């Protein structure tokens, strides 16, 4: 008869891997949606428009070739200090406005006096974004209406309701964001593939960070045998058998051979929960080779109980944190490194 209470490491790994598939899938959906929402295609290849009145308010990015536009008399600067000038054009009783880089206008009329350059532009091509009126535009309209002895409402009535703005055309920002999105999609796909592969073959799961995959496979089998013997101490989702520390928490699956460990201690970390402050602990395992494994998110009582249980095993493991213990462990690791170096040198000499 099957033991329903049997703790199966491979089943837990499969459950963890299924959970780990959720975040990458959600991330991929959101990021792919962003690729369609943000008009990257229009940015990389702006719609070519002959004349500002052929611009549609639904357009995103455009490359406008204008025959002639008149200067409103108003300039603005963006956050980088770049100067832009407002120009307008009237056709069939409608007025369209464009915000054009001053440097571009100046370069086009470089052989003309500044006043002449400012008054009107001819045969100029510029790239811009089609936007709704913003605070800068509204301020310009207010002052421009006063200059014309019009009211703002009268001027707005004949205006197109959109602005062709080079000040809002930021190709490098969009390209940078596009690269970031593609990068995160790639990372999410890699994580999703790894999770699916580990779900299908739980032995691929890295239960011990400093061991190879093949060693992890053996570790899982050996730890499972000790769990099946039912000779272990259990603290919530942590199991301490004769030879292994096994943690099957919701965050992952960790197996550490106790024979490798020389020091274990806890470190607290302040976390914020809704309505209260809490202190969680990370259990740090230091091996004889100086490797470190960290088991996160333990309560104070849980961490203390785990460390006491490890101390009660037959292995000589230093517990608790202090400067003296740190120096002691450092000396052990250094001696181990020197011993390994001497053995390697000896083997090389024998060869």
Describe the overall structure:
- With 351 residues, the protein is of the alpha+beta class.
- Helices cover 44% and strands 30% of the residues.
- It has ten helices and 14 strands.
- The strands form three sheets. It has a five-stranded mixed barrel. Strands 7-8-9-10 form a four-stranded antiparallel sheet, sandwiched between helices. The protein has a four-stranded mixed sheet with strand order 13-12-11-14, sandwiched between helices.
- Strand 8 and strand 9 form a beta hairpin.
- Helix 1 packs antiparallel against helix 7.
- The longest helix has 30 residues.
- The two termini are 56 Å apart.
- About 1% of the residues have low confidence.
Largest sheet: 5 strands, mixed, barrel
- Radius of gyration from the CA trace? 34 Å
Following the backbone from N to C, one meets helices and strands in this order, namely: HHEEEEHHEHHEHHEEEEEEEHEH
Give the helix proportion (percent range).
40-55%
Strand order of the largest sheet: 2-3-4-6-5
Q: Strand-residue fraction?
A: 25-35%
By secondary-structure content and strand pairing, the structural class works out as alpha+beta
> What are the segments in which pLDDT stays under 50 over at least 5 consecutive residues?
272-276
- How far apart are the termini? 56 Å
**Helical run tally:** 10
Shape: elongated
Mean pLDDT, to the nearest integer, reads 87
Number of strands: 14
